[in-house]
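haha ok so turns out i had the wrong file open the whole time. this is the CORRECT one, sorry everyone. sequence first:
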Amino acid sequence: MELQEKMYQLRERIKSLKDNIETEEATKQSFILPFFQVLGYDVFNPLEFVPEFTADVGIKKHEKVDYAILRDGQPIILIEAKSCNEKLEKHDSQLFRYFGTTKSRFAILTNGIEYKFYSDLDQPNVMDSKPFYILNME
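then structure:
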């Protein structure tokens, strides 16, 4: 099955389930993990897709971003997840804090329906204030 077909099926799944999803964890299990599986990531392989990845910020220890996608043991994409019932606008600052603590150059903020893709195009090692791409699964 092609990527486009799989994404369409996931979109239909989201439409049918979103009114029944009430928590961040349910959003992760029902929408976010399937999204990354469709893209070809092995979300159950901790050498590739790490839940609760440590991204300590300054004196704040044990800060964790929801997921990190790794390559050769290094994070290449950070993913901060929120409940599908939450708007993302107020949560980008949390991801911004994590971004500068790793070697990752990409970050995604998502509620399982909307995906905001960030990088450091404006200034190296500093997450841009605006996403370079927004995907809405609806």
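The two ends are 20 Å apart (CA to CA).
again sry for the mixup
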